[in-house]
Every structure is written in C-alpha cells, then in structure tokens.
Design goal:
about 10% strand; about 290 residues; globular; single chain; binds iron/sulfur cluster; alpha/beta; 2 domains; 9 helices; five-stranded mixed sheet
C-alpha cells in the first residue's frame, strides 16, 4: 500500500497529474476517492473490495471531473480493458491519463465484502482472468497475489436460462425487467456508456419508451446489451448501481460469451486489436457486408 500511496503522492507533487482517482474507506466498504493534494493520498486503499471500475471517471460524460485536469487512475487489469475500449473508439487520448496498475488477486462481488476470497463471494469475472498483471499501464505496483477462486455461479445461471423454452425465457426476462424503473443508474455507472445523447433519450423518433413499462423496458435492455456487445468488460458496476438488483451482468455476460464463441473476441488491454463492432471484412461470408 505504501508503494501505491508514495507513487500517487509523487505524481501530484511533480505536477504530472492534477488529481488521483483511487479507492478509500467508506461507510459501506471501499468507495471511489478523488484526491487533489499529496497528503490526501494517505487515504488510498486497495484490496479485494476495490470492485469499481474507476475508468468510468475518465468517460467523456464526466466532464466535471475531466475539468480538474490530467488524472492518475488506480486500475486493475479488467479496468484497463475498459480504457483500451475507450481508446479504440477515440473517446480518450492515451496521454490524457496516467494509469496506475495494481497487481490483482481478484475482488469480491461487492465493495462491502469481507473474509477470505472464496467461490461464493468472488466476482464472477475473476475466475478466468488473464489481466491480473496488466502490461499497458504507466506504473505497476504490488506483488502478484495468488489467483482468485473460480465461481461457477453465473455459468450455472446462464445454463439454466438457456435450458428454458423460448416462451419461458421470454416470460422470465419480462418479469425480471418489469422491476426496472428506468432510473438510468446502470447507464451512468457504466464506463462504456459514452454516447452524448443516448438512444433511449431520443424523442424524434422515439426508439424506446422512456417510462417504466414492460415493453419499453425490454427494448431498453436489449438495445443496451447490443450496444455493449464486445465492449462490456464485466465490471458489474451497472448491476451494483441498480436499486432493484436486476441481474444485468447475466445479460451482458451471455452476450460476452457469444462474442467469444462467434468472433473469438473478448475485450483486452490492447486498443489496436480490432473489435467486432466497429470493423468489417470485405471477405465476410455474409452478403449484407458488400
Ligand atoms: S477480473 Fe482480473 S483484474 Fe479484474 S478484478 Fe478480477 S482478477 Fe482482478
Ligand atoms: S455494462 Fe455493466 S458490467 Fe459491462 S462495462 Fe458497463 S457497467 Fe461494467
Ligand atoms: S439501474 Fe436498474 S432500475 Fe435503473 S434503469 Fe438500470 S436496470 Fe432499470
């Protein structure tokens, strides 16, 4: 921890950055911290509770934070994948932020987690992680901890839903999504929901009903899942932000599996690797591309 604190203090003192975005103790576990003075860096913590994807604070939609000046952001490998996605899509410039990577031993499902990391409390995304020691950051701190345990929870849930008949599956999602009040907390929390004007807010034409209604809710969540196909880094911030605990990562997790199976793609830390959405191949076997 001293290594992380000392490095962030130095970055601020040397004027390399104006602000450090990291984690600090909060009333319910750790929470994001925005620190502008070297002494404040003493508040920084990093452990299995560091669940949030702080790259969200670099999003073009968080202009008020960008106004503070160049930021150093404490990142895990999976967060770097979100940064790479934003670079690939020309939403950020590489030199616009300093990435302070931390070697990662996995995180809990919630920032308020406690006790040893096990298959019950570990985040679903950690099981097959290849990014625990990110290579594209500006600084990398800490020793590499033991690999996190694997949770089979989500895979089992996806298999259960896949085994339903189409009518049962439709009824399941209709019921689950009926709880959505369209507060947009999921959209605000996501590091990759970056559109200046979301399709769900457009009124001419109106693509998606904006009031909470089963029909509009289904359209909204289908549109959101497709817009995040091959982009979602499975940070879970959308699901944690949802006041009704709607299992959004089940939807994005399933779409992520499809992207792996059909396109051999999962978001990684190299922005030069083309993503399926945003590229095309004139040799594609399907006619629609020509
Ligand atoms: S997915 Fe990998 S980098 Fe991200 S929290 Fe889990 S172990 Fe760490
Ligand atoms: S859709 Fe959810 S899990 Fe995926 S990147 Fe956005 S906030 Fe993270
Ligand atoms: S945070 Fe939950 S309730 Fe709010 S719009 Fe998203 S899914 Fe719906």
């Amino acid at each position: 921890m001293r290594e992380l604190i000392g490095l962030c203090q130095k970055l601020l003192r040397d004027g390399d950055v104006k602000v450090v975005i990291g984690y600090e103790e909060g009333p319910r576990g750790v929470r994001p911290a925005v620190i502008t003075d070297p002494a404040g860096c003493e508040r920084l913590v990093f452990d299995h509770r560091a669940v949030h994807n702080l790259v969200a604070y670099l999003s073009p939609r968080r202009g008020h934070l960008r106004d503070l000046g160049r930021a150093a952001v404490v990142v895990k490998g999976c967060d770097v994948a979100a940064f790479a996605t934003l670079l690939r899509e020309s939403q950020l410039e590489r030199e616009g932020a300093v990435l302070v990577g931390v070697r990662c031993g996995g995180v809990y499902r919630s920032a308020a987690g406690s006790g040893p990391l096990d298959e019950k409390n570990v985040a679903d995304r950690c099981g097959d992680c290849g990014l625990r020691e990110p290579g594209t950051v500006d600084h990398l701190v800490g020793e590499l901890p033991a690999a996190p345990p694997v949770s089979g929870r989500r895979a089992a849930r996806i298999a259960e839903i896949e085994n339903m008949s189409p009518a049962e599956r439709f009824a399941y999602w209709r019921e689950v999504l009926a709880d959505c009040v369209r507060c947009n907390a999921c959209r605000s929390a996501c590091p990759l929901c970056v559109c200046e004007r979301c399709l769900a807010d457009k009124t001419d034409p109106r693509w998606v009903e904006s009031s909470p209604h089963p029909r509009g809710n289904l359209s909204w969540h289908m549109a959101r899942a497709l817009h995040l196909a091959g982009r979602c880094v499975d940070c879970g911030d959308c699901e944690r932000a949802c006041p009704f605990g709607i299992p959004l990562t089940l939807i994005n997790g399933k779409v992520g599996l499809v992207m792996r199976e059909r396109f051999g793609f999962a978001p990684g830390e190299d922005p030069e690797v083309p993503a399926p959405i945003g590229t095309f191949d004139t040799d594609d076997s399907q006619e629609f591309i020509r």
